[in-house]
């Protein structure tokens, strides 16, 4: 079976979410980033379920979160910071310290206009 067929196709795709729960973390690694796209808006019905699945990936999330923090999608960054990263243990979050410090110390104009700085400071205070 092609693991990519398990990627939800719409925000109410609970059928695929339930199927994802039957796979081991190792089997789902190739689609981590695809699953993270479902955290672009935590108001989507499947977002919380996807987040709970993603939390099992621990350190494997880091390169993907790093990529998200480098995008121009401030809403996605916001949800990653306020939802997913709040549930990750400190020893994992500290691996993203340079990216978090960049947002805090050298934010883009869009990051300045969003609530990202406050969220980043809160996370940094937790790990420092």
TrEMBL record:
CDD domains to which the protein is assigned, alphabetical: Cthe_2751_like
Native organism: Paenibacillus sp. AN1007
Lineage: Bacteria, Bacillati, Bacillota, Bacilli, Bacillales
InterPro entries linked: Cthe_2751_sf, DUF5071
Pfam family, one: DUF5071
Sequence ranges assigned to domain DUF5071 in this UniProt record: 6-124
Protein name: DUF5071 domain-containing protein
